[in-house]
Amino acid sequence: MRLLPDECIPRKLKESLKEHDCRTVPEEGLAGKKNGELLALAHASGFQVFLTIDRGIEYQQNLQAGNVSVVLIRAKSNRLADLLPCVPAILKVIVELKPGEFARVG
């Protein structure tokens, strides 16, 4: 599965998601893009899941209209130490998501 962590998520989180094809927003050259454009570009690039900590995304975007599933990681902060406990839940939920679905973990 192709995963795209948002630029506000530490790059080292992808080391915990090794069983998937995980590339960060900066690695894809998409840093600075707004969420709507970012989701469209993610879909065009073949990503299936967008990982973010942006709590407003579900209210700011029409997620059902897209083909990229979105996982909102709810953690104390965006520090790696706060995000790592969410990895098992992320790994579980991404295999259950259908295109365009939204899920919260953490």
Shape: globular
Mean pLDDT: 89
**In oligomeric terms, what are we looking at?**
single chain
Number of domains: 1
What summary fits the major beta sheet?
A: 5 strands, parallel
Nearest-angstrom radius of gyration?
Answer: 12 Å
Output the keywords.
alpha/beta; 5-stranded parallel beta sheet; globular; single chain; 4 helices
Structure description:
- This protein has one domain (2-105).
- It is globular.
- 25% of the residues are buried.
- The protein has a 5-stranded parallel β-sheet, covered by helices on one side.
- Strand 3, helix 2 and strand 4 form a beta-alpha-beta unit.
- It has helices spanning 35-44, 57-60, 80-83, 87-94, and strands at 2-5, 21-22, 49-52, 69-73, 102-105.
- Helix content is 25%, strand content 18%.
- It starts with a strand and ends with a strand.
- The protein is an alpha/beta fold and 106 residues long.
- The mean pLDDT is 89.
